[in-house]
Amino acid sequence: MPIQSFGPFRLIGSKRLLEKDGEPVIIGGRTLDLLIALVAHAGEVVSVRELITLIWPNVTVEEANLRVSISALRKLLGDGRDGARYIVNVPGRGYMFVAPVRTESQEDAAEEGNASSLARPRRVTEAPQLLVGRHDTVLYLSRLLLAQRFVSVVGPGGIGKTTVALAVIHGLRSEFDDDRVCFVDGGAISDPDDLPNAVASALGCPDHVSDPLPGIRAFLAGRRILLILDSCEHVIEAAASLCEYLFQAVGTVHLLVTSREALRVDGENVHLLQPLPYPLDEAPTALQAMATPAVQLFVEKAAASGHLEALSDKDAPVVSDICRRLDGIALAIELVASRVGVYGINGTVDLLDSGAELVLQGRRDASPRHQTLQALHDWSYRLLSADEQKVLARLSVFVGELTLAAAHAVVGDTADDRKAITRAIASLGDKSLLQVCSTQGPARYRLLDTTRAYAAHKLAERGEEDEIARRHALYFTFLLERIGIQGPAFGNPDLSRVAASMGNIRRAMAWSFSPGGDRSIGLRLTEAMASLSPGHTLLRECHEWCQHALRIMHAPGRAMSLELDLREALEMSIMHALGTGEEAAIGRGLQLA
Q1: Is residue 287 very low, low, confident or very high in pLDDT (cuts 50, 70, 90)?
Q2: Which residues contact 413 (CB under 8 A, 6 or more apart)?
Q3: pLDDT at position 92, please?
Q4: What CATH architecture applies to the domain 3-112?
């Protein structure tokens, strides 16, 4: 059994002995077992269940017993005193030994020519077995990493950053000295100050408790090593500082980072990982659907869940729509497809319609933040400032794209909020929570549908649903009125000016006529919309809106003029869309005229 040293301590497992500065330390048997288990897995998270099984085999104990032992061990080691950090709690997962560990053995001494040697970097987990639609990306990133040395893979949670990173590093093993590839799970680190120690521990370099950076630099000097920092968004400042330091100080180290936000430091090459492509055609055949990676992944995961039927032409549009609703996000597709074996394809659609996608459980061995979409978004949401949380929740009222002007009008409480909202939107974009759809003309943004569903829950928790929906409906009413779509019902309005807003206009209309909405806004919106329908796909919708508005209309002072406009639009929509007319509508319209 090797001898392991960390800080002033030396752990001799074969003798069950712990020394500090050469002197034996009095330590209980259970506490020593706990220390041996943690040090043996330095730089890795050891679950509560594993530790209890190792320390209390064949005995039923509560988690509280483990917490007491951890507390005693931390006190014995002086954890937290004079900057020393040894054991950190990873909420929901377990504990991790973060101090750098030096390993000594007779074999190492003979090999290295001295009494102690440096442990090799900890091995990476197995290569991903299912890599759908990412082969070209992996090849491109591999070449970029070899050429530029420092690459960050950035994208929203669940899009597949870790999967791509693992595929890259497994393909590049032969490019690095003695298979030196080191993986650090940043998601297991809660305190940014622990990141350098976790890296040093994973590398197996000499420990410098007060400042591990010199030890890391000395260890890496002259060695061609690939260092992967995975899931760094919650320790972004520490990761940025560490990566910039290593990139500039050690010319042989290659850095691969995954994060929901770019580090924005010198030398970084950012690759924005895109969602998996899905069919754009609303009614693809099975062959056409299976040509897209999103549907391929869905079918693979559905088969793994017990659904063994091949994709049919009948089901292809349904599956394509599911992938479209999930925005091509790999984790979301996996979680939803994993229910097909139980519910079938149409039953799975019903789950989505009920909003269940946020709470569907994933693999039990996945990290807590990847077990549900709810947990995935909770992880990002907790990293936001209070202003960013408010803005994200309020943006959920928008369907599809939105402009900065729309966000200012709907999200802000006062005119003075504009700068703060602009900053928050820029930050949400940086953190992959808000997509930039277009930079031609006024920038347009959108929330991914799963993010929007999560943000809508947060808006409900804030008790602001109706107020923000009212602002949203008023904004799009003002928009239509402002651009002059109130002329003769069958003029030729410039439909391109509002085409990108149609989803929001429909949403505003639906809210206005809902039980909790404002019918007066709905009437104004219907009147403004009436002139939009000619030659447009909204003829049938215009017919329904006008009929509904006429049934509930009560607008004193302008009822006659409004009713005339609505009846004109109604009759023309009937003739154009349905190919018939209604004498009652014409008669009443003539009477009003």
Answers
A1: very high
A2: none
A3: 73
A4: Orthogonal Bundle (1.10)
